[in-house]
Please model this.
Amino acid sequence: MAFFKETKATSNARLQRIERMVWVLIYGGLLAIVLGVFIDQQGAQDASLFYQLGGLAVVGGVVLIYVRSRLHEKD
Model:
């Protein structure tokens, strides 16, 4: 019994790049939103910028998930 199971990772460089960008956008956007919360608690006016940019990044990541689901690796 193997500890790590074999995955069906893609070998296509374009698809790998999209998969990486998905996680960078989602996690980066969530981090920006959390930073906006901390900045908002301090009373700064820049918090809305962090909220907006973070939200756009998360939405971009979700859109890339949909785009990636429609792309298929050529055998």
Notes: The mean pLDDT is 86.
